[in-house]
Amino acid sequence: MFIVPIVYAAYLSFFQDKLVGGNTFVGLANYGKLFQDTQFWDGVGRVVRFTLVQVPLMLILSMALALALDSLRLHGAKFLRVTIFLPYAVPAIVSTLMWGFLLGIKYGLFGSLNEALGTDFNPFAPDTTLISIGVVVTWAFTGFNMLIFYAALKAVPRELYEAAAIDGANELQIVRAIKLPALRGSLVVTVIFSIIGTFQMFNEPQILPSMVANSGVTTFYTPNLYAYNLAFTGSQQGYAATLALVMAAITVAVAYAVQIRGLRNASDH
Amino acid sequence: MRRTTSRPGEAGKTSGRGGRLHTVGNPRKSTTLTVMTSLFTLYCLLPLVWLAINATKSQADFVSSFGLAPGREFALWDNIVEVFRYQDGIFSRWLLNTVLYVVVGATVSTFLAALGGYALAKLDFTGKRVFLLVVLGSISVPGIALAIPQFLLFAQLGMTDTPWAVLIPSFINPFGLYLMWVFTAEAVPTGLLEAAKIDGAGEFRTFLQIALPLLAPASVTVLLFSFVSIWNNYFLPLIMLKDPNWYPLTVGINQWNKLGSTAGNGALVQNLVITSSLLTIVPLIIAFLGLQRYWQSGLSLGAVKG
């Protein structure tokens, strides 16, 4: 189920469905076309920009929350932990619907806000849609990443903190000298998961246009959405297979690079 | 372990939080920290609260009233009844489909992950290294990237638009297999397996009766993750299924949602979209709250080797 579809997709990527002559062997033409396809690179650029901004923000937040929970200084820590993790249980379709309604100007809070203040701010204008999607994705996955960090912190023996405190270290020093290094391994894992997630982004931009009009989401907004539209509305299956393969290759390469870098940094310590 | 981190960004961030704390080794509850964390919790709860409030409104109230305020009438029960009646009660069909995909998919994928993890950790067989490479490789190839190739393959085999098209891809769970592999290596003593084999148990029986019970804690975690990912899966059923009778809840809800945007002649059933969304997440939230300790233990399992 892993190798067979990939081999089959690789086979399909050498074919094009032509009006005259049907499905014909075209060699590497699909790959050549893809590398010159500005719509494809527009989508790639968008997910890369999204990854560069949203992933660091989300992971810093997750890490800060995990450290706060692990500090044992919170009132109602268990309740807070469960609540922060809760959005992970919500399917992307429901989270996009909720945020689409909430942030939308038609029925949502921003509609009421604009009415009250006399402004016309629209979170789903073409310029701001990507930020709104970032709000949705951050909402959905911060808790999941927080839990990975939290589990790693829980694995640190408490005696280490006591020993450090006896040596006169304050809480800040303990965080920097013990807790942050202990998070290194899980940081690599979360970065890889997050990159894979955003590079494959599909649900939110696919669902949004049915929620809000003129959000600026195009049929090639993300590479995956483009592949979907090519395969299902454009019936260019060979080309869609090519795109899926190239995108998978890019994702694996980036994830692998992060892993190598993460491991090398870890061995420095 | 003693050296400080070389990343000023992260250190700066946490020092911002830590700096406001009392610096005694013995932890004392901090109101500032609690308030700051609670602010984030508000962000987490806001959409869910909004959903719960608006599931109690009639369509007319939904359009006219403020999002976080209750409507003029309490229509939750009416909405639920209407969700189950709309389009000849197709919602119950979607619910049953989802349960079918989740129960069969999660059970089979967890069993296969345990079997594969056990084989990798405890057995020697030809091609083990190649197999291992494929498993590690497939963890980093995201499921969505595989979905389109899988669809093209299933279309070729004439299997799209059947439950198998959703079930078979969900049986494969590389991350679960990895977790099981790590866990088997640590929790299942090889000596015990050898003893069973000396007593005459076959390979498969040894796995079923000796190893599988020892793998129970890890199995629960893998089962939970499969449960959530299959229950929430949208992309795979979206591309594999055309017949609404086989839709899971996620695809079905989006179909209702799209009814409204079909310009002009569409029926606005946002109250049903919202109520069905609420009904969809309630079982998951219960599973989360009830089984939360398994989530954390599973993740720390992965963190040990990860």
Summarize the helices and strands and which ones pair or pack:
The complex is a heterodimer of chains A (269) and B (306).
Chain A: H1 3-12, E1 15-18, E2 22-25, H2 29-35, H3 38-70, H4 77-85, H5 92-103, H6 109-117, H7 129-154, H8 158-166, H9 171-182, H10 184-199, H11 203-207, H12 223-232, H13 237-267
Antiparallel strand pairs in A: 1-2
Helix pairs in contact in A: 1-13, 3-7, 3-10, 4-7, 5-7, 7-10, 10-13, 12-13
Chain B: H1 8-18, H2 31-54, H3 59-64, H4 76-122, H5 128-140, H6 143-157, H7 163-171, H8 174-187, H9 190-198, H10 203-214, H11 216-231, H12 235-240, H13 249-261, H14 270-290, H15 292-305
Helix pairs in contact in B: 4-7, 4-8, 4-11, 4-14, 5-8, 8-11, 9-10, 11-15, 13-14
CATH class of the largest domain in chain A: Mainly Alpha
Per CATH, what is the topology of the largest domain in chain A?
MetI-like fold
- Low-pLDDT stretches of chain B: 1-25
Secondary-structure element string of chain A = HEEHHHHHHHHHHHH
**Low-confidence residue ranges of chain A:** none
Find the count of extended strands of chain B (DSSP E, 2+ residues): 0
Ends apart, CA distance between termini of chain A: 40 Å
CATH-level-2 architecture of the largest domain in chain A: Orthogonal Bundle
What is the H level of CATH, i.e. the homologous superfamily of the largest domain in chain A?
Answer: MetI-like
Largest sheet of chain B: none
Percent in strands of chain A: under 5%
Q: Report Rg of chain A.
A: 23 Å
**Under the CATH scheme, which architecture of chain B would be assigned?**
Orthogonal Bundle
Number of strands of chain A: 2
